[in-house]
Amino acid sequence: MFDNLSSKLDKAFKTLKGQGSISEINVAATIKEIRRALVDADVNYKVAKEVTDKIKDEAMGRDVLTTVSPGQLMVKIVYDELTQLMGGEKQDIVIKGEPAVVLLSGLQGSGKTTFAGKLASFIKKQNRNVLLVACDVYRPAAIDQLKVLGEQIGVEVYSEPENKNPVEISQNAIAYAKKNNKKVVIIDTAGRL
Q1: Are 13 and 74 contacting, i.e. CB atoms less than 8 angstroms apart?
Q2: CATH architecture classification, 100-189
Q3: What residues does each domain of the chain span?
Q4: Per-residue pLDDT for 17 more than 80?
């Protein structure tokens, strides 16, 4: 989802590339693309409109420095507004427990398996021993996908391909994690147990 949003925002910023200044016309085209990108990324329309209205007001109220292009200025304004929308400052992920257990649930096709891999990679970079657990028993390709992701990032994946009980798989995985000194267990589910 974020890769898609990022590429659509890049496309929006390209409308300002080569422009010598920020005008209402070129800002309007960029704002339209930004709003579309946000809505396509499942941001509520009212929120997307509010954010893009703020971006437009900020962009129109700024003088472009000779050392900064209109596109660069727009990137900065969008970054600032999206940062503000997301809470304004960086928040650390606090994971407690031995092992800490993170259970991922959500709609089908919403990116849980991919997110599990990204979260595992992030936690591994903090020098914590991670175990990914394949509990999406309804989509056989999910187990393979998680194994590929685990291999790419160097994180072990626990699975029981013959077991169709996600609760049992989770319990067995947590016991395995305790036995094998895993500090964080990330359980990828089908979104429902």
Answers
A1: yes
A2: 3-Layer(aba) Sandwich (3.40)
A3: 2-85, 100-189
A4: no
Q: How many residues does the chain have?
A: 193
Q: How far are the Cα atoms of 117, 145, 155, 172 from residue 152, in angstroms, in the given order?
A: 9, 11, 8, 24
* pLDDT tens, position by position, 97-132: 889 999 999 887 778 898 999 999 999 999 999 999
Task: Please say whether the structural domain 2-85 has been given the CATH code 1.20.120.140.
Answer: yes
**Residues 151 and 122: beta-carbon distance below 8 Å:** no
Prediction pTM value: 0.63
Sequential DSSP letters for the chain: -HHHHHHHHHHHHHTTTT-SS--HHHHHHHHHHHHHHHHHTT--HHHHHHHHHHHHHHHHT-PPPTTS-HHHHHHHHHHHHHHHHTTSS-------STTEEEEE--STTSSHHHHHHHHHHHHHTTT--EEEEEE-TT-HHHHHHHHHHHHHHT-EEE--TT---HHHHHHHHHHHHHHTT-SEEEEEE-S--
**Residue 78: CB partners within 8 Å, gap ≥ 6?**
9, 13, 34, 55
